[in-house]
Specification:
Elements: H1 3-54, H2 58-61, H3 76-83, H4 86-118, H5 124-136, H6 143-152, H7 159-183, H8 188-195, H9 200-211, H10 213-229, H11 232-237, H12 246-258, H13 264-298
Helix pairs in contact: 1-13, 3-13, 4-7, 4-10, 5-7, 7-10, 7-13, 8-9, 10-13, 12-13
């Protein structure tokens, strides 16, 4: 029997074996996909329940039988939240604080990460260890010192005061995030651009900086979420009722509602409005954020 005949006889057997191996793989993928869908539904259910409750009147929510669909619902709960102008004022303060924190964190952390990754200087290792050590300090242990510092600078009950504390809290971890991105981009790219006639600044802005965009977006999202959702520092620094971020405003809204029996429909509507800016912000940057987190996990 020739070699060609042997190959012709063994080829169908190889195909059968390959199909036999693919069936368990497909079954495994199907099971894992079903588990992923179930987990996603479990994670998304609290958000759906919040939206559903925000559209239902309090009389329906107080019933023992849960209402899974907002049939007969309305936007009255949202109108009740907007009736008090304090929500828009708190929204403006939160946006200002988060915006300042994001911009300043990205600038400071980017320059620090660039210095650590691109330059060798005396005290570099000590600086890196200091950044790591600061990140490990508990925030609660510094409340008194932060309060006295802001008081001595006349920055209590101010957007600038609470923004400075947020920046100091977020910058260390942001430096570690960006350090991996900067280290993952070869310096030879800039050197090749400089050989072609570009200056060091032009080579950095045209070659390196665009490659760092996913890392900057991922770091910016982290800084935004930390500043937007933070409660305890704002509670210590912002004690004036006219200067409240959204988490503080939501606590005050619930307390006001409890004085006349808590209206859970209005509370859920207020919680939804607090979460909406985060969702909108994430929808705009989700593509860059995903690639940035993946790149940061494999580089550095």
């Amino acid at each position: 029997m020739s070699r060609a005949d042997t190959r012709s006889m063994t080829a169908p057997l190889a195909v059968v074996r390959q199909r036999g191996h693919e069936r368990p793989r497909r079954r495994t993928r199907t099971i894992l996909g079903a588990l992923a869908v179930i987990l996603a539904a479990v994670w998304a259910f609290p958000v759906y329940w919040m939206l559903n409750s925000a559209l239902l009147p309090n009389v329906v929510l107080e019933q023992t039988r849960p209402t899974l669909l907002p049939i007969g619902g309305s936007l009255k709960n949202f109108a009740a939240v907007f009736a008090d102008g304090s929500f828009l004022r708190a929204l403006g303060i939160s946006l200002a604080v988060a915006g300042i924190a994001v911009v300043c964190c990205l600038v400071f952390a980017f320059l620090a990460a660039l210095a650590i990754s691109r330059f060798r200087f005396r005290g570099r290792r000590s600086f890196v260890l200091a950044v790591l050590f600061i990140q490990m300090l508990p925030a609660e242990g510094m409340f008194i010192a932060q309060y006295k510092l802001m008081g001595s600078l006349n920055l209590l009950n101010s957007v600038i005061g609470v923004s400075i504390i947020y920046i100091a809290a977020v910058v260390p971890f942001t430096i570690w995030m960006l350090r991996g991105f900067v280290a993952g981009i070869p310096a030879e790219l800039e050197e090749a651009a400089m050989v072609d006639g570009l200056s060091r600044t032009q080579a950095f802005l045209r070659i390196t900086f665009p490659l760092l965009a996913p890392g900057l977006v991922a770091s910016g999202v982290y800084a935004f979420l930390q500043a937007w959702n933070e409660f305890t520092v704002a509670l210590v620094i912002l004690q004036d009722s006219s200067m409240q971020t959204l988490p503080l405003w939501l606590r005050g809204f619930i307390q006001q509602s409890s004085s006349r029996a808590i209206d859970w429909g209005e509370v859920m509507a207020a919680s939804t409005l607090v979460a909406v800016p985060v969702i909108i912000f994430f929808l705009f940057v989700q593509g860059r954020m995903t690639s940035g987190l993946v790149s940061g996990a494999v580089k550095g």
